[in-house]
Amino acid sequence: MTDTPIRILIAKPGLDGHDRGAKVLARGLRDEGFEVIYTGLRQTPEMIADAAEQEDVDVVGLSILSGAHMALLPRTVELLRERGMEDVLVAAGGIIPDADVTKLKAAGVAEIFGPGTSIGQIARYFREHVRREA
Amino acid sequence: MSELVAELASGERRPLARLLTRIENGDAALRPQLQELFGAGRGAHVVGITGPPGSGKSTLVNALIGEWRRRGRRVGILAVDPSSPYTRGAILGDRIRMMEHAADRDVFMRSMASRGELGGLAATTWIAAAALDAAGYDPVLIETVGAGQSEVEIARLAETTVVVEVPEMGDEVQAIKAGLLEVADIVAVNKGDRPGADRAARQLRAMMSTAGGRVERTPPKIMVTTATSGDGVAELADAVEAHREQARSPVAARGRAANQVRRALADLAATRAREHPAWDQTVQEVADRELDPFTAAERLMEGVG
User: Fold this and answer.
1) Right CATH number for A7-128 from 3.90.190.20, 3.90.850.10, 3.40.50.280, 3.40.50.150?
2) pTM attached to this predicted model
3) What is the residue-wise DSSP string for B205-246?
């Protein structure tokens, strides 16, 4: 069963005005063989965690440009843990200052992809780091 | 009661979500438990919703969820989108229109990729619907893009099938072509606020009420809905519920059960054939023209029976 496609939920938490980048990533990961559940703009951490739970995804990818990442990302991780989804990989993409990256990783965000990261790099990271129970 | 069924009955979402993953993946370890899973069903009304891309299916499903929640029902949704035949990847986008229900504990929505030939989609959706039923969701909606034959087949597994169309669906000849509209118990002409919606509904009614010959089917009920405003949605929910009784008449139920079994068994047999040790080699031999397809099929069916 290890050859079943990786399932990833892509969401935009908070009040960002557009989701061009998230859509490009969704399309790119589709072409990399992922099953991408796309949920669109203006999501709360609660909505994201509830959707991730029902979809039983391997990865939650959060795209954020608004600057509210310190409030929204740790909260999403916390809600996923509360729902028993400890082994779900949480990754973020967007404009996030280096100083915050360390703090976010300490809060349980596995990786942060800044501008210029290729979709191939992101896909490879997920393939290498997804944890699946036997 | 087994652990599996007890977990489902508890109303917890995580065990159901995990079970759906195992069903999707065709987990062989699950097979011995399937009989019990079907036995644990509570008789949920299984409703298929299909239609061409962009006809507003997801928005209409979203509106129907709201309507059924107002009526105190717990709603389960399986939303199927196509997988790429080249990469096996998929974009599952139906949640975009349904996020308002994401945090509602009495709505469970699962996106499923069709997974092409490896999926056995009809069998998978049938079993997944049984899991939602056992977890206490009723109705269970199965949303598919009405584009390919397999998606139409899924709709036929449902007790009640709603086909969503738009006013610009085409002329009367489009309406009498074989295919999508034939499987409909109810046709929703959606985007009813656009010009021509009532006219399209009238034309459909005229074309479909005159059917005769060898098909013993009640003509579908033709309705106009506007999913974005909610117009016609309560009436559609009423029509779906009214059809439940009709769908459960012994004759209709037996016909559908035979169709379900036929389709699901064909899928399961195909899955078994793919698990045959000689599958890869046989495919290659046929591709290289060393073997004809009919002998290949005979070989792969050995040991399946």
Assistant:
1) 3.40.50.280
2) 0.88
3) HHHHHT--TT---PPPEEEE-BTTTTBTHHHHHHHHHHHHHH
